[in-house]
Amino acid sequence: MDITLAELSAFVRGDVLCGDLSQTITGFASLQEARAGDLSFFHDARYLERLQKTQAGAVLVPQGCSDLPASVACIAVSDPSRAFEQVVEKYGFQPAPFVPGIHPTAVIGKGMIVDAAKVSIAAHAVIGDEAQLADGVEVGAGCYVGSRTKIGAGTKLFANSTVHDQCILGERVILHSGVVIGADGFGYEFDKGRHRKVRQAGIVQIDNDVEIGAGTTVDRARFGRTWIGEGTKIDNLVQIGHNVIVGKHCIIVACTAIAGSAQIGDYVVIAAQSGVAGHVQVGSQATLAGRSGVTKSLPGGKTYLGFPAVPVSEEKRRLASINRLPQLMKRVKEMEQMIAKLTERP
């Protein structure tokens, strides 16, 4: 990146409030990390102190912003966060372009349905028998795609991701490295003193525009399907058990675990390190705050917190009560001492 302040302001359609138009911007970073030559952005009043202390060469600020830092060029835009994103998209790390073709080291099964001129299969990938790959599919290095798997147009599998037999991926699905789709669900019966494995005979279905982060696993159903709805975004290191149904346009954040046969509605947000027990339902548009533990079905449209998860107002009252316990204990001890003195009187 090597662009003048004048060129930058034209690109983001902003107004230069202060600074030398010939100044050169060479990179971008957060307000705290930025150094001379870096572009940053300010869009939240909570970070006003960081704005005043930043060492950035230039900062994108909201229109009407008056608390401008000294010796820093400022460009006013309607949405600093989005404008910064546009700069990063143009001048930041660029993903490798789609290059059709099948690498000579890839292993291709019998009867695969594919137009080799319209897909990209990288080195050492393995594609099983009768798999179906639509136009624009990218299979990264070292990936495994099982037999009779169906993958929709424009879907991308990053290196070393796995899609087991007969699973179905929609269009424009993104699987990051280390994702495993369709491994056996965790199903056992205790029989004659031993844990007997229950056959997992279902599939995983992932609908259009789903993105799944690195190291996440989505287990095969015992029967039927484990199902991830359209537009849902799943973070790294998430575990989704067998026969789980996740609705449309959900957000599931890192280290969350959803046990078998749970049902998650549409537009649900599940924050980091939360757990959902098996066979429960979380209603549409619910939000689970970080480290929530869902032990029973919860209606939609509310925010929940704690273990077991309850409406956030109830959990905040409980936490406030816990914080008052030391004071209450002190008062009880004082009262016990007073009672003891009264009982000692003749």
Quaternary structure type? single chain
CATH class of the largest domain: Mainly Beta
Q: Which range does the strand content fall in?
A: 25-35%
Helix share bin: 10-25%
CATH fold-level topology of the largest domain: UDP N-Acetylglucosamine Acyltransferase, domain 1
DSSP E strands, number: 39
Strand order of the largest sheet: 8-10-13-16-19-24-27-30-33-36-38-39
As a whole number of angstroms, the C-alpha radius of gyration is: 27 Å
* Rounded mean pLDDT score: 95
Plain-language structure description:
A twelve-stranded mixed beta sheet has the order 8-10-13-16-19-24-27-30-33-36-38-39, covered by helices on one side. The chain has a ten-stranded parallel beta sheet with strand order 9-11-14-17-20-25-28-31-34-37, with no helix packed on it. The chain has an eight-stranded parallel beta sheet with strand order 12-15-18-23-26-29-32-35, with no helix packed on it. A hairpin with a 4-residue loop joins strand 38 (303-305) and strand 39. The longest helix has 20 residues, at 325-344. The protein has three domains: 3-91, 3-Layer(aba) Sandwich (Udp-n-acetylmuramoylalanyl-d-glutamate--2,6- Diaminopimelate Ligase, Chain: A, domain 1); 101-313, UDP N-Acetylglucosamine Acyltransferase, domain 1; 316-344. Helix content is 17%, strand content 29%. The N and C termini lie far apart (89 Å). With 346 residues, the protein is an alpha/beta fold.
